[in-house]
Amino acid sequence: MKARNIVLVDDHSLFRNGLRGLLEHSGGCRVVGEAGSGEEFLALLPQLDADVVFMDFSMPGLDGAQTTERALSVRPDLRIITLSMFGEESYYSRMVEAGARGFLLKDSAIGDVLEAIDAVMAGGSYFSPQLLASLTDRMRTREDASDEQLSSREREILVLVCRGLSNQEIADELFISKRTVDKHRANILEKTGCKNTASLVVFAIRNGIVEV
């Protein structure tokens, strides 16, 4: 398998150096770029061949959400995973809305980091369980679209989306066509007002469709 091209965006060089060493020692990753700020990353972006970007939220200047939004407007194919310290959960809704596909604690084990990379590369999302539980607790008070507007088939598909299955894998499991799954998934996004898989996962947990 081709090595994953990784970019690290964090204002602490010691942290970047440590994560770079762990990723490159794993044998399946290659760090192709680093930036100490959102502005530096955006300036480098046109030259980067990146599969996954690890993005710190708290940085001087542009924060992680602003940087993610601007980066995805130029490169919508980027898979961005948020890095944060425990206790910064209040920012995660902004990262979901900006388009981040995953969330990791900075003290996560390398196994979790590699699992997150595999998940987003497969088109899914990845949430550190501790962060996801805290995030959904904080977001329960927000007024959201009710899951009652989803059909039983749409709820069934949403559960499989939260399990990380691709549209083709969902089609195979439910014995329906991928085109049908594509249509259902588009309807789910429209009805819930979600933008991506990460926000669908949060919606599903918040509405009790799946559990953490």
Précis, in short:
This protein has about 210 residues and is α/β, with parallel strands linked by helices.
Q: Quickly give the structural class.
A: alpha/beta
Helix content: 40-55%
Outline type = globular
Number of strands: 6
Unreliable residue stretches: none
**In order across it, which strands form the biggest sheet?**
2-1-3-4-5-6
Instruction: Tell me which oligomeric state these chains represent.
Output: single chain
Strand content: 5-15%
The number of helical runs is 10
Mean of pLDDT: 86
Supply Rg. 17 Å
Report on the structure:
With 212 residues, this protein is an alpha/beta fold. Helices cover 50% and strands 14% of the residues. The protein has ten helices and six strands. Strands 2-1-3-4-5-6 form a six-stranded parallel sheet, with helices on both faces. Helix 4 (92-98) links the parallel strand 4 (79-84) and strand 5 (102-105). Helix 7 crosses helix 10. The two termini are 31 Å apart.
List keywords for this structure.
single chain; alpha/beta; 10 helices; 50% helix
